[in-house]
Amino acid sequence: MGRSPCCDKASVKKGPWSPEEDAKLKEYIEKHGTGGNWITLPKKVGLTRCGKSCRLRWLNYLRPNIKHGEFTDSEDKIICTLFASIGSRWSIIASKLQGRTDNDVKNYWNTKLKKKIMSMNHSVEMKPQQVTLSSILQNSTKSSPSFSFTDSSYHHSNGSFTGSFSYSSTSSSLLSGNSSTSAAQESFIGDASFVQQNNIGSVNYIYSEVEDSEKLMFSNAGSVNGLWGENPLDYGIDEIKQLISTNTSTSSCNNFLFDD
DNA sequence: AATTAATCCAACCGCAATACG
DNA sequence: ACGTATTGCGGTTGGATTAAT
Q: Pfam families from the entry (predicted)?
């Protein structure tokens, strides 16, 4: 038995939002809030949209403090760092970037950042075993950012892990060469909590569990056979994560991801 | 100037998790 | 405890725009 659809698709408007629809939705939510129910919201607002569509429009475009436009070098670094450690959890990654939405981050990664990293890495002409995110980032800047992990450990059974890492850089940058300073300290604590403090902002969040893909991340010390295909941009998510994390220590799970 | 290819990004879709009766 | 409704998320699609030929 399948699920009942969230709305009557035949009578629901689809496609791009008009300025009038935007204004209606924005005005209503600012006045009354969502009422805790997106499904019934369109009717109240007077829109023929699906509730999910309204929610997405609000979250990705209409809500206050949404930031559009170019990503900064600091944001690039945070995305790379988090992608390497938690994979494509765009909502978590976006939560670390003020004003960015998961959709934004996802699009940016898929269309630009991934390619930049891969092409950067390709131009480095290093042996696969020598490639780390650190080296990629270092290669992109004159004054190298430094990354380090300390006291990391990982426990399989209950999904918890502990550890911390810090990074800092002066000048920068991953892509543009614009000057900036960034520093951050992050720590993994107790029951898979991940707390960050940095000079961009402070965000706390909790991982509920760690999945298999991340287990590979923490323990990966395996072969990189097949990683370097004919097309430098033709990688899957796993390959990219592996690429970023390649050179993980083979002796223990400490110091994973970043070299000293 | 016209056509084609590549890129970007808003929006949709379906699934899993969560809330609720 | 169970079934249904709703929410949140990540993957994918498709139209608009830009670049190349």
A: Myb_DNA-binding
* Residue A27's CATH number: 1.10.10
For A137-183, the pLDDT digits (tens) are 554 433 333 333 333 333 333 333 333 434 443 333 444 434 333 34
Cβ contact A139 with chain B strand, < 7 A: no
State which nucleotides on strand C lie below 7 Å from a protein beta carbon.
4-12
Domain hosting A90: range is 73-121
pLDDT digits (tens, 9 = 90+) for A57-76: 999 899 888 888 888 888 88
Protein-covered nucleotides of chain B (CB closer than 7 Å) are: 7-16, 18
How many domains is chain A partitioned into structurally?
2
* 3 state SS of A95: helix
> In whole angstroms, what separates CA A248 from the centre of its chain?
21
d(CA A117, CA A101): 21
